[in-house]
Amino acid sequence: MSTSSQIADAHSSQQHPSGERLDVAASVLALLADRTRLALLERLGRGEADVTTLTVATGAPRPSVSQHLAKLRLAGLVTTRKDGRHVVYSLRHGHLRRLVDEALNVADHQIGSLPSHD
Prior knowledge:
Blueprint: H1 3-12, H2 18-32, H3 35-44, E1 49-50, H4 51-58, H5 62-74, E2 78-83, E3 86-91, H6 94-112
Antiparallel strand pairs: 1-3, 2-3
Helix pairs in contact: 1-2, 3-6
């Protein structure tokens, strides 16, 4: 089963065994474990963008950005639409934006030695 199918299946019903949910969550987190993909998702959390915009935002080479976007698209985490000759990318849902934001908040706390809170 592909990662995108697993993600869609896990969200369609809360009836899934906890093991399957954990497997899908681990797949999503594994995709976020790459600096370039995390940067892409962080930028897309602020709004849709094309490859050129994402290349500038991440500082990664264009071929690398394209490959990472393909992985994110195949996993069902980002969507695309055509705008003339450009392909525009966006996050599939707000859950992912919040997940990336929280990961970055954890980093802020560790870097800045900020106090713990709920």
